[in-house]
Design goal:
Shape: elongated
Radius of gyration: 26 Å
CATH superfamily of the largest domain: Cupredoxins -  blue copper proteins
Strand content: 25-35%
Bound molecules: copper (II) ion
Length: 181
């Protein structure tokens, strides 16, 4: 099951539980109060609350750790030491990519900036999947690390609306086999 569907299922189950809770409350409304039973159910509710809180806390901590411990954005102010470096400048409405040929199998450091306005630098694999992206911002250099696995012609497309010719603002990067040129 893809992750999106797992989340959907959990959300639907959660909404179902909330609905059941509402139906229960509505069904109980109007019944005469029984002090002992009320105290008992209040206690049960507090215990359930504490458990729910503990489960959510553990879930959030585990989820954050699992998704963030390998933070996908490299340090922006350190030497990254990648074996290949590509300089990228976006401008209305073209990309300047130097060099525009890289090798598969080893990491490429893209240093991405803009000569005018904000652009979105996105790399698409030959099959149309987006494989990496960052912002191209005037006055900043954003570093992006990516190791291409498959040789081929990759497409660079601007992902942030930047004026009249934003949509055709695209070019290509050639990825060649390791050791090739
Ligand atoms: Cu654009």
């Amino acid at each position: 099951m893809i992750f999106q569907n797992v989340v959907w299922t959990l959300v639907l189950v959660g909404m179902g539980l909330v609905a059941v809770g509402f139906i229960y409350v509505v069904a109980q409304a109007g019944k005469p109060a029984d002090e002992v039973a009320t105290r008992k159910s209040t206690h049960t509710a507090h215990v359930l609350q504490a458990w729910l809180f503990a489960v959510l806390l553990v879930g959030f901590v585990a989820g954050s750790w699992a998704t963030l411990h390998r933070f996908p954005i490299p340090p922006q102010h350190a030497e990254l030491g990648a074996p290949q470096v590509v300089e990228v400048v976006g401008r209305q409405w073209s990309w300047q990519i130097t060099p525009d040929t890289v090798q598969a199998g080893s990491t490429v450091e893209f240093r991405v900036t803009s000569a005018d306005v904000n652009h979105g630098f996105a790399i698409y694999a030959p099959d149309g999947r987006i494989v990496a992206q960052t912002q191209a911002m005037p006055g900043f250099t954003n570093k992006l690390l990516y190791a291409f696995r498959q040789p081929g012609t990759y497409t660079v497309q601007c992902l942030e609306y930047c004026g009249l010719a934003h949509a055709p603002m695209r070019t290509t990067i050639q990825v060649v086999a390791p050791g090739g040129k």
